[in-house]
């Protein structure tokens, strides 16, 4: 019986054994050709857990002739790094795989970076976080390539599982297991593109299966029981979590109810209810805005209800809010107008506040010329209320327009009023 987990034992031993990620290490890629020609460049591997970062590093090591060392930045200390540097001095060049590289501290960097720069240490860093956000620029600048890995396809996972079932040396090939192609497909679907989870699930299923006449009989209910939460991934505050928030907002903005509900479900499975509520509230004003002003109040009520209820019941008001936003008319005109005004200020488009708009609630205001303001409520106009022609912007900015209405939903009515008021301003 093996002591190491199945996922560990089934790591590819060279690039030709890598399944998936062919856009990075396929035989036609520049990286594959470089390595087989004896040149291994420093690089960063970026992607979610279980999609092959560590496997690719070990496969590169197996395809190269360089001494190979592996460290994890969360636990490695200065002495570990110094040991690698010493090995590099002896061997001339070594290959270092550094997992969780975004946690690399300054002391480790100061020890290692000169040797990466002079080529005595070839660095392969792996991270689940966006390297442009979380990896130190000094590390990034010394890595020639930043390679983003993709989730494995269902076919990739099925092939991995099949390989593990048939490999007598490292896998379960010596075991007598009764498993159908349909059950292998179920494992592949449940793993959600994560090779490590697929092989871990397969191993758990094998040990949980009843043995009949020396054969392990895999049953569907065992697969279903063990794979309930296997597709969920996304650390709170991590890159993938923010990618999920981004995907939710863009799906709502694009009026795709099914995608929006999918991303909402994924976010809620990760458990950060407050972050989800905050993003939904922003979306109500950023993407729905004046086209349906009532949505802001509806979403606020839904998010407050969700926080009061807590999970799992919180999903009920949040689902209603997301569907309503998806199917609501949309406008970003209000905050776009504010951004345009902010940009104008930063560009130096400023001026003095007109005297008649300045504070006049004190003795001496008239002496300073703070006079001439006309009170709009004293000038009723139709059913609109009060309006009077006077200048509100600084003289330098007179007639500038920041607001550009979107003719959608309730804003279409507002746009009509806006245009009418503009004609009143132009009248002598």
Automatic annotation (TrEMBL):
Domain AAA+ ATPase: 39-151
Keywords: ATP-binding, Nucleotide-binding
GO molecular function, one term: enzyme activator activity
CDD domains per UniProt: AAA (cd00009), HLD_clamp_RarA (cd18139)
Top-level taxon of the source organism: Bacteria
Pfam families for this protein: AAA, AAA_assoc_2, MgsA_C
Alphabetical list of InterPro entries matching this protein: AAA+_ATPase, AAA_assoc_2, AAA_ATPase_RarA/MGS1/WRNIP1, ATPase_AAA_core, DNA_pol3_clamp-load_cplx_C, MgsA_C, P-loop_NTPase
GO biological process entries: DNA synthesis involved in DNA repair; DNA-templated DNA replication
Family listed: Belongs to the AAA ATPase family. RarA/MGS1/WRNIP1 subfamily.
Full protein name: Recombinase RarA
UniProt organism field: Ureibacillus sinduriensis BLB-1 = JCM 15800
Lineage, top ranks: Bacteria, Bacillati, Bacillota, Bacilli, Bacillales
């Amino acid at each position: 019986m093996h002591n190491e987990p199945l996922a560990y034992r089934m790591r590819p031993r060279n690039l030709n054994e890598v399944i998936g990620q062919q856009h990075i290490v396929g035989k036609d890629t520049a990286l594959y050709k470089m390595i087989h020609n004896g040149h291994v460049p420093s690089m960063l591997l970026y992607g979610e857990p279980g999609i092959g970062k560590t496997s690719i590093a070990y496969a590169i090591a197996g395809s190269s002739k360089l001494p190979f060392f592996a460290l994890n930045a969360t636990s490695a200390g200065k002495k570990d790094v110094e040991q690698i540097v010493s090995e590099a001095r002896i061997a001339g060049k070594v290959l270092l795989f550094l997992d969780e590289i975004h946690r690399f501290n300054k002391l480790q960097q100061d020890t290692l970076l000169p040797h990466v720069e002079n080529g005595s240490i070839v660095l392969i860093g792996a991270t689940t976080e966006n390297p442009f956000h979380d990896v130190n620029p000094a590390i990034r600048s010394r890595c020639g390539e930043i390679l983003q890995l993709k989730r494995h396809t269902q076919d990739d996972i099925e092939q991995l599982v099949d390989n593990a079932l048939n490999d007598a040396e490292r896998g379960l090939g010596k075991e007598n297991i009764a498993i159908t192609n349909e059950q292998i497909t179920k494992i592949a679907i449940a793993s959600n593109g994560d090779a490590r989870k697929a092989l871990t699930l397969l191993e758990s299923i094998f040990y949980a299966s009843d043995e009949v006449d020396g054969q392990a009989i895999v049953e569907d209910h065992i697969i279903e029981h063990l794979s309930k939460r296997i597709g969920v991934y996304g650390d709170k505050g991590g890159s993938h979590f923010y990618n999920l928030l981004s995907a939710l907002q863009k799906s709502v903005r694009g009026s795709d109810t099914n995608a929006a509900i999918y991303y909402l479900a994924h976010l809620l499975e990760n458990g950060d209810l407050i972050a989800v509520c905050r993003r939904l509230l922003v979306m109500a004003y950023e993407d729905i805005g004046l086209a349906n002003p009532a949505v802001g109040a509806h979403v606020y009520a839904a998010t407050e209800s969700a926080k009061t209820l807590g999970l799992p019941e919180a999903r009920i008001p949040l689902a209603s809010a997301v569907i309503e936003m998806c199917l609501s008319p949309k406008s970003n005109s209000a905050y776009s107008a504010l951004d345009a005004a902010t940009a104008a200020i930063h560009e130096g488009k400023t001026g003095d506040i007109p005297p008649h708009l300045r504070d006049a609630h004190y003795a001496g205001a008239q002496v300073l010329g703070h006079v001439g303001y006309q009170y709009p409520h004293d000038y009723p106009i139709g059913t609109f209320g009060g309006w009077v022609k006077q200048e509100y912007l600084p003289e330098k900015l007179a007639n500038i327009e920041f607001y550009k209405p979107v003719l959608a939903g309730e804003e279409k009515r507002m746009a009509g009023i806006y245009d009418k008021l503009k004609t009143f301003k132009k009248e002598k």
